[in-house]
Amino acid sequence: MDTDITAPKLSFFARLGQKTDRIILILVIFLTAVSIVMVYSMRGNVVLQHLKHLLFGYAGMFVLYKVDYRKLGVLAPFFLFFAAALLVLTMLSQAVRGVTIFGRDVQTFYFIGFLIIFYIANYIARQYHNHGELTEANVRYLFLLLGAFCVGIATMNMSTAIILFGTGLVIFFVGGVKLKDLGVMIGIVASILIVAVIVVANLSDERKANIGRMATFINRWEYYITKENVNGYGDQMILARAAIARSGFNPAGPGKGVIKNRLPEKETDYAFASLFEETGIIVGTLVLMSYLVIFYRARKIAKEATGTFGRLLAFGIGFWFTCQAIVHIGVNCELLPTTGQTLPFISSGGASLFVSGCAIGMLLNIGKVSYLENQKEDPLEMLRR
Predict the structure, then answer these.
(1) Phi, psi at residue 102, to the nearest 5°?
(2) Is the per-residue pLDDT at 125 higher than 80?
Protein backbone atom coordinates (compact mmCIF):
# COMPACT_ATOMS: atom_id res chain seq x y z
CA MET A 1 0.00 0.00 0.00
CA ASP A 2 1.31 3.41 -0.97
CA THR A 3 2.04 5.77 1.88
CA ASP A 4 1.37 9.47 1.45
CA ILE A 5 4.05 11.32 3.31
CA THR A 6 2.88 14.78 4.27
CA ALA A 7 4.64 17.36 6.36
CA PRO A 8 3.24 17.77 9.87
CA LYS A 9 1.79 21.09 10.94
CA LEU A 10 4.59 23.11 12.44
CA SER A 11 4.47 25.26 15.56
CA PHE A 12 5.33 28.95 15.37
CA PHE A 13 8.94 28.40 16.43
CA ALA A 14 9.29 25.48 14.05
CA ARG A 15 8.02 27.67 11.23
CA LEU A 16 10.78 30.10 12.05
CA GLY A 17 12.79 27.21 10.73
CA GLN A 18 16.38 27.28 11.81
CA LYS A 19 18.01 27.90 15.12
CA THR A 20 19.52 30.93 13.46
CA ASP A 21 16.15 32.67 13.32
CA ARG A 22 15.20 31.74 16.86
CA ILE A 23 18.42 33.24 18.14
CA ILE A 24 17.72 36.51 16.35
CA LEU A 25 14.23 36.62 17.83
CA ILE A 26 15.52 35.93 21.34
CA LEU A 27 18.13 38.67 21.01
CA VAL A 28 15.52 41.16 19.82
CA ILE A 29 13.33 40.32 22.83
CA PHE A 30 16.35 40.81 25.10
CA LEU A 31 17.15 44.21 23.57
CA THR A 32 13.56 45.43 23.86
CA ALA A 33 13.39 44.28 27.49
CA VAL A 34 16.55 46.28 28.19
CA SER A 35 15.01 49.29 26.45
CA ILE A 36 11.89 49.16 28.62
CA VAL A 37 13.99 49.20 31.80
CA MET A 38 16.16 52.02 30.45
CA VAL A 39 13.29 54.26 29.35
CA TYR A 40 11.35 53.67 32.56
CA SER A 41 14.37 54.53 34.70
CA MET A 42 14.81 57.78 32.81
CA ARG A 43 11.31 58.97 32.20
CA GLY A 44 8.74 56.72 33.79
CA ASN A 45 5.91 58.93 32.57
CA VAL A 46 6.60 58.09 28.91
CA VAL A 47 7.15 54.34 29.26
CA LEU A 48 3.62 53.67 27.99
CA GLN A 49 4.39 55.61 24.82
CA HIS A 50 7.59 53.63 24.44
CA LEU A 51 5.66 50.38 24.86
CA LYS A 52 3.27 51.52 22.13
CA HIS A 53 6.20 52.16 19.79
CA LEU A 54 7.62 48.73 20.62
CA LEU A 55 4.28 47.14 19.78
CA PHE A 56 4.32 48.89 16.40
CA GLY A 57 7.83 47.55 15.86
CA TYR A 58 6.76 44.01 16.68
CA ALA A 59 3.69 44.41 14.47
CA GLY A 60 5.94 45.41 11.56
CA MET A 61 8.19 42.45 12.33
CA PHE A 62 5.25 40.02 12.35
CA VAL A 63 3.76 41.34 9.08
CA LEU A 64 7.02 41.19 7.15
CA TYR A 65 7.81 37.80 8.61
CA LYS A 66 4.49 36.49 7.26
CA VAL A 67 4.68 38.10 3.79
CA ASP A 68 7.00 36.40 1.31
CA TYR A 69 9.75 38.93 0.58
CA ARG A 70 9.91 37.76 -3.03
CA LYS A 71 6.31 38.86 -3.65
CA LEU A 72 7.24 42.36 -2.45
CA GLY A 73 9.88 42.51 -5.17
CA VAL A 74 7.31 43.72 -7.71
CA LEU A 75 6.83 46.81 -5.53
CA ALA A 76 10.53 47.74 -5.66
CA PRO A 77 10.06 50.61 -8.19
CA PHE A 78 7.27 52.02 -6.03
CA PHE A 79 9.52 51.78 -2.96
CA LEU A 80 12.17 53.78 -4.82
CA PHE A 81 9.65 56.46 -5.77
CA PHE A 82 8.35 56.59 -2.19
CA ALA A 83 11.91 56.92 -0.82
CA ALA A 84 12.61 59.80 -3.23
CA ALA A 85 9.39 61.53 -2.20
CA LEU A 86 10.26 61.13 1.47
CA LEU A 87 13.72 62.58 0.88
CA VAL A 88 12.34 65.63 -0.92
CA LEU A 89 9.71 66.21 1.78
CA THR A 90 12.38 65.88 4.47
CA MET A 91 14.65 68.41 2.78
CA LEU A 92 11.76 70.87 2.52
CA SER A 93 10.49 70.24 6.05
CA GLN A 94 11.23 72.41 9.05
CA ALA A 95 11.53 69.37 11.28
CA VAL A 96 14.97 68.10 12.22
CA ARG A 97 15.81 64.94 10.24
CA GLY A 98 12.21 64.21 9.39
CA VAL A 99 8.77 65.50 8.50
CA THR A 100 5.91 66.75 10.63
CA ILE A 101 2.76 64.61 10.49
CA PHE A 102 -0.28 65.61 12.53
CA GLY A 103 1.86 67.86 14.66
CA ARG A 104 4.51 65.20 15.41
CA ASP A 105 8.01 64.95 13.96
CA VAL A 106 8.69 61.62 12.24
CA GLN A 107 12.27 60.73 11.31
CA THR A 108 12.26 59.54 7.73
CA PHE A 109 15.86 58.43 7.18
CA TYR A 110 15.17 54.95 8.57
CA PHE A 111 12.38 54.42 6.05
CA ILE A 112 14.50 55.81 3.21
CA GLY A 113 17.48 53.60 4.04
CA PHE A 114 15.39 50.44 4.32
CA LEU A 115 13.60 51.10 1.03
CA ILE A 116 16.82 51.86 -0.86
CA ILE A 117 18.48 48.69 0.43
CA PHE A 118 15.45 46.67 -0.72
CA TYR A 119 15.46 48.31 -4.16
CA ILE A 120 19.19 47.83 -4.80
CA ALA A 121 19.08 44.16 -3.79
CA ASN A 122 16.04 43.57 -5.98
CA TYR A 123 17.51 45.43 -8.97
CA ILE A 124 20.74 43.44 -8.93
CA ALA A 125 18.83 40.16 -8.56
CA ARG A 126 16.55 41.03 -11.50
CA GLN A 127 19.52 41.84 -13.71
CA TYR A 128 21.07 38.46 -13.00
CA HIS A 129 17.74 36.71 -13.52
CA ASN A 130 16.89 38.47 -16.79
CA HIS A 131 20.31 38.99 -18.36
CA GLY A 132 22.68 36.73 -16.46
CA GLU A 133 25.09 39.52 -15.57
CA LEU A 134 25.49 42.98 -14.10
CA THR A 135 26.74 45.38 -16.78
CA GLU A 136 28.81 48.51 -16.31
CA ALA A 137 25.72 50.57 -17.18
CA ASN A 138 23.85 48.84 -14.35
CA VAL A 139 26.68 49.59 -11.92
CA ARG A 140 26.82 53.27 -12.95
CA TYR A 141 23.07 53.58 -12.53
CA LEU A 142 23.14 52.08 -9.04
CA PHE A 143 26.10 54.21 -8.01
CA LEU A 144 24.43 57.42 -9.19
CA LEU A 145 21.20 56.41 -7.51
CA LEU A 146 22.88 55.59 -4.20
CA GLY A 147 25.04 58.72 -4.43
CA ALA A 148 22.05 61.00 -5.05
CA PHE A 149 20.22 59.70 -1.99
CA CYS A 150 23.33 59.86 0.19
CA VAL A 151 24.09 63.45 -0.84
CA GLY A 152 20.54 64.49 -0.02
CA ILE A 153 20.67 62.75 3.35
CA ALA A 154 24.16 64.13 4.11
CA THR A 155 22.86 67.70 4.17
CA MET A 156 20.82 66.73 7.23
CA ASN A 157 22.56 63.70 8.76
CA MET A 158 26.05 62.84 7.60
CA SER A 159 26.44 59.61 9.59
CA THR A 160 23.22 58.15 8.20
CA ALA A 161 24.42 58.93 4.68
CA ILE A 162 27.77 57.25 5.34
CA ILE A 163 26.11 54.14 6.78
CA LEU A 164 23.74 53.89 3.82
CA PHE A 165 26.58 54.36 1.35
CA GLY A 166 28.64 51.70 3.10
CA THR A 167 25.70 49.30 3.07
CA GLY A 168 25.22 49.94 -0.63
CA LEU A 169 28.87 49.13 -1.30
CA VAL A 170 28.55 45.89 0.68
CA ILE A 171 25.54 44.86 -1.41
CA PHE A 172 27.45 45.78 -4.59
CA PHE A 173 30.40 43.64 -3.49
CA VAL A 174 28.24 40.64 -2.58
CA GLY A 175 26.36 41.18 -5.84
CA GLY A 176 29.51 40.75 -7.91
CA VAL A 177 30.62 44.33 -8.62
CA LYS A 178 34.36 44.41 -9.32
CA LEU A 179 36.71 45.70 -6.63
CA LYS A 180 38.13 48.16 -9.16
CA ASP A 181 34.71 49.74 -9.65
CA LEU A 182 34.11 49.86 -5.91
CA GLY A 183 37.45 51.59 -5.46
CA VAL A 184 36.51 54.20 -8.04
CA MET A 185 33.20 54.80 -6.25
CA ILE A 186 34.90 55.25 -2.90
CA GLY A 187 37.52 57.56 -4.43
CA ILE A 188 34.90 59.80 -6.03
CA VAL A 189 32.83 60.09 -2.85
CA ALA A 190 35.90 60.66 -0.67
CA SER A 191 37.13 63.42 -2.99
CA ILE A 192 33.75 65.17 -2.96
CA LEU A 193 33.54 64.91 0.84
CA ILE A 194 37.06 66.27 1.35
CA VAL A 195 36.39 69.24 -0.95
CA ALA A 196 33.07 69.94 0.81
CA VAL A 197 34.70 69.83 4.24
CA ILE A 198 37.50 72.19 3.18
CA VAL A 199 35.07 74.66 1.63
CA VAL A 200 32.71 74.67 4.61
CA ALA A 201 35.54 74.87 7.14
CA ASN A 202 36.75 78.11 5.57
CA LEU A 203 33.35 79.81 5.60
CA SER A 204 32.33 82.36 8.20
CA ASP A 205 30.11 81.24 11.09
CA GLU A 206 27.14 83.10 9.61
CA ARG A 207 27.45 81.36 6.26
CA LYS A 208 27.99 77.99 7.95
CA ALA A 209 24.65 78.39 9.68
CA ASN A 210 22.91 78.47 6.28
CA ILE A 211 24.19 75.17 4.88
CA GLY A 212 22.36 72.63 6.99
CA ARG A 213 24.08 70.09 9.23
CA MET A 214 27.43 70.04 7.43
CA ALA A 215 28.83 72.75 9.71
CA THR A 216 27.84 70.79 12.81
CA PHE A 217 29.48 67.68 11.37
CA ILE A 218 32.75 69.56 10.78
CA ASN A 219 32.75 71.23 14.21
CA ARG A 220 32.27 67.87 15.90
CA TRP A 221 35.14 66.40 13.89
CA GLU A 222 37.33 69.33 14.92
CA TYR A 223 36.66 68.59 18.58
CA TYR A 224 37.22 64.87 18.04
CA ILE A 225 40.65 65.55 16.51
CA THR A 226 41.84 68.50 18.62
CA LYS A 227 39.88 67.94 21.88
CA GLU A 228 39.44 71.72 22.08
CA ASN A 229 35.92 72.28 23.36
CA VAL A 230 35.77 76.01 22.67
CA ASN A 231 32.26 76.09 21.20
CA GLY A 232 30.78 73.31 23.33
CA TYR A 233 30.62 70.73 20.54
CA GLY A 234 32.37 68.23 22.79
CA ASP A 235 29.99 68.49 25.74
CA GLN A 236 27.96 65.46 24.72
CA MET A 237 31.01 63.27 24.20
CA ILE A 238 32.57 64.33 27.53
CA LEU A 239 29.39 63.53 29.45
CA ALA A 240 28.86 60.20 27.65
CA ARG A 241 32.43 59.12 28.37
CA ALA A 242 32.04 60.16 32.02
CA ALA A 243 28.82 58.16 32.37
CA ILE A 244 30.54 55.02 31.02
CA ALA A 245 33.71 55.55 33.09
CA ARG A 246 31.66 56.06 36.28
CA SER A 247 30.05 52.64 36.01
CA GLY A 248 32.27 49.73 35.06
CA PHE A 249 31.70 46.78 37.41
CA ASN A 250 29.96 49.00 39.96
CA PRO A 251 26.90 50.43 38.17
CA ALA A 252 24.59 52.95 39.79
CA GLY A 253 21.52 50.76 39.29
CA PRO A 254 18.31 51.42 37.31
CA GLY A 255 16.97 54.90 37.94
CA LYS A 256 20.03 55.99 39.95
CA GLY A 257 22.19 57.45 37.21
CA VAL A 258 23.41 61.01 37.72
CA ILE A 259 25.41 61.99 34.65
CA LYS A 260 22.69 60.74 32.32
CA ASN A 261 20.41 63.51 33.55
CA ARG A 262 22.74 66.05 31.97
CA LEU A 263 23.04 64.18 28.69
CA PRO A 264 20.95 65.58 25.84
CA GLU A 265 19.04 62.93 23.85
CA LYS A 266 19.73 60.40 26.59
CA GLU A 267 16.93 58.12 25.40
CA THR A 268 18.00 58.23 21.72
CA ASP A 269 21.48 59.28 20.58
CA TYR A 270 23.11 58.56 23.97
CA ALA A 271 21.04 55.59 25.07
CA PHE A 272 24.08 53.32 25.43
CA ALA A 273 25.96 55.70 27.78
CA SER A 274 22.82 56.18 29.89
CA LEU A 275 22.24 52.44 30.01
CA PHE A 276 25.88 51.72 30.81
CA GLU A 277 25.94 54.12 33.77
CA GLU A 278 23.06 52.29 35.42
CA THR A 279 23.69 48.66 34.41
CA GLY A 280 27.46 48.44 34.02
CA ILE A 281 29.90 46.58 31.83
CA ILE A 282 28.17 43.19 31.90
CA VAL A 283 24.88 44.40 30.40
CA GLY A 284 26.76 46.78 28.10
CA THR A 285 28.86 43.91 26.76
CA LEU A 286 25.79 41.70 26.31
CA VAL A 287 24.10 44.45 24.30
CA LEU A 288 27.15 44.88 22.06
CA MET A 289 27.47 41.12 21.55
CA SER A 290 23.77 40.88 20.68
CA TYR A 291 24.23 43.11 17.65
CA LEU A 292 27.34 41.24 16.54
CA VAL A 293 25.53 37.90 16.81
CA ILE A 294 22.58 39.30 14.83
CA PHE A 295 24.98 40.27 12.05
CA TYR A 296 26.60 36.83 12.14
CA ARG A 297 23.19 35.16 11.88
CA ALA A 298 22.13 37.52 9.10
CA ARG A 299 25.25 36.52 7.21
CA LYS A 300 24.37 32.85 7.75
CA ILE A 301 20.84 33.44 6.47
CA ALA A 302 22.31 35.19 3.42
CA LYS A 303 24.59 32.23 2.68
CA GLU A 304 21.68 29.78 2.91
CA ALA A 305 19.23 31.92 0.89
CA THR A 306 17.85 30.17 -2.18
CA GLY A 307 18.17 33.12 -4.54
CA THR A 308 20.29 36.18 -5.32
CA PHE A 309 17.61 38.56 -4.04
CA GLY A 310 17.40 36.89 -0.63
CA ARG A 311 21.17 36.67 -0.31
CA LEU A 312 21.75 40.35 -1.08
CA LEU A 313 18.81 41.56 0.99
CA ALA A 314 19.74 39.52 4.07
CA PHE A 315 23.35 40.64 3.95
CA GLY A 316 22.33 44.28 3.39
CA ILE A 317 19.82 44.29 6.24
CA GLY A 318 22.26 42.62 8.63
CA PHE A 319 25.07 45.05 7.82
CA TRP A 320 22.85 48.16 7.89
CA PHE A 321 21.17 47.19 11.16
CA THR A 322 24.38 46.28 12.97
CA CYS A 323 26.32 49.24 11.57
CA GLN A 324 23.82 51.62 13.18
CA ALA A 325 24.42 49.95 16.53
CA ILE A 326 28.22 49.95 16.20
CA VAL A 327 28.27 53.64 15.23
CA HIS A 328 25.98 54.52 18.15
CA ILE A 329 28.12 52.61 20.66
CA GLY A 330 31.33 53.98 19.12
CA VAL A 331 30.08 57.55 19.50
CA ASN A 332 29.01 56.95 23.11
CA CYS A 333 32.46 55.54 23.91
CA GLU A 334 34.15 58.48 22.07
CA LEU A 335 35.67 56.13 19.54
CA LEU A 336 33.85 58.10 16.82
CA PRO A 337 32.81 61.76 16.51
CA THR A 338 29.38 62.74 17.81
CA THR A 339 26.56 61.91 15.44
CA GLY A 340 22.85 61.24 15.64
CA GLN A 341 22.39 57.47 15.46
CA THR A 342 19.89 55.58 17.56
CA LEU A 343 20.52 52.17 19.10
CA PRO A 344 18.17 49.67 17.38
CA PHE A 345 15.43 48.29 19.66
CA ILE A 346 16.81 50.20 22.66
CA SER A 347 16.61 53.92 21.83
CA SER A 348 13.13 55.36 22.06
CA GLY A 349 11.44 56.66 18.92
CA GLY A 350 8.55 55.37 16.86
CA ALA A 351 10.15 55.47 13.41
CA SER A 352 13.39 53.76 14.39
CA LEU A 353 11.63 51.00 16.34
CA PHE A 354 9.10 50.37 13.57
CA VAL A 355 11.69 50.18 10.78
CA SER A 356 13.98 48.02 12.94
CA GLY A 357 11.08 45.63 13.46
CA CYS A 358 10.32 45.55 9.74
CA ALA A 359 13.98 44.88 8.91
CA ILE A 360 14.25 41.98 11.36
CA GLY A 361 10.89 40.61 10.20
CA MET A 362 12.08 40.56 6.60
CA LEU A 363 15.35 38.93 7.66
CA LEU A 364 13.41 36.20 9.47
CA ASN A 365 11.21 35.79 6.41
CA ILE A 366 14.22 35.19 4.18
CA GLY A 367 15.38 32.47 6.56
CA LYS A 368 11.91 30.91 6.68
CA VAL A 369 11.50 30.91 2.90
CA SER A 370 14.91 29.30 2.42
CA TYR A 371 14.08 26.64 5.01
CA LEU A 372 10.77 25.77 3.38
CA GLU A 373 12.30 25.70 -0.10
CA ASN A 374 14.95 23.29 1.10
CA GLN A 375 12.28 21.05 2.65
CA LYS A 376 10.46 20.85 -0.68
CA GLU A 377 13.59 19.33 -2.17
CA ASP A 378 13.71 16.64 0.55
CA PRO A 379 10.33 16.16 2.29
CA LEU A 380 11.65 13.26 4.40
CA GLU A 381 14.15 15.58 6.03
CA MET A 382 11.32 17.48 7.75
CA LEU A 383 10.16 14.27 9.42
CA ARG A 384 13.63 13.45 10.63
CA ARG A 385 14.02 16.78 12.46
Answers:
(1) 50, 40
(2) yes
User: Which alpha helices (DSSP H) does the chain contain, by range?
Assistant: 12-15, 19-42, 47-66, 76-92, 109-131, 136-154, 158-174, 179-201, 205-208, 214-226, 235-247, 271-304, 308-332, 350-377, 379-384
Half-sphere exposure of 84 (CA within 13 A, CB side): 11
* Amino acid at position 162, single letter: I
Query: Taking phi first (over 0 means left), then psi (-120 to 50 degrees means alpha), and beta for anything else, what does residue 159 get?
Result: alpha
Decide if pLDDT at 129 tops 60: yes
Tell me the per-residue pLDDT of 30-48, one tens digit each, with 9 for 90 and over: 999 999 888 777 665 678 8
What gap in Å lies between CA 237 and CA 220, rounded to an integer?
A: 10
Output phi, psi for 381, to 5 deg: -65, -35
Number of Cβ atoms within 10 Å of the Cβ of 338:
24
Element (H, E) at 106: strand 104-107
The answer, yes or no, to whether residue 20 has pLDDT greater than 60, is no
Q: What is the DSSP string of 326-342?
A: HHHHHHHTTSS------
- Residue 266: CA atoms inside 13 Å, Cβ hemisphere, count? 26
State how far the Cα of 158 lies from the Cα of 220, in Å rounded to an integer: 12
C-alpha distances in angstroms, 259 versus 39, 232, 236, 270?
Answer: 15, 17, 11, 11
pLDDT (tens digit per residue) in 52-103 = 999 999 999 999 999 999 999 999 999 999 999 999 999 888 776 678 776 6
DSSP conformation letters of 349-360:
-HHHHHHHHHHH
In the chain, % of residues over pLDDT 90:
46
Residues sharing a CB contact under 8 Å with residue 339, sequence separation 6 or more, in sequence order:
157, 158, 159, 217, 220, 269, 327, 331
**Half-sphere exposure for 66 (CA within 13 Å, toward CB):** 7
DSSP per-residue string spanning 77-88:
HHHHHHHHHHHH
Provide the whole-model pTM: 0.87
Residues 195 and 198: their CA atoms lie apart, in Å, by 5
pLDDT score at 117:
97
Of the listed ranges 7-21, 179-193, 316-330, the one predicted with least confidence: 7-21
Closest to 237 (Cα-Cα) out of 251, 215, 219, 255: 219
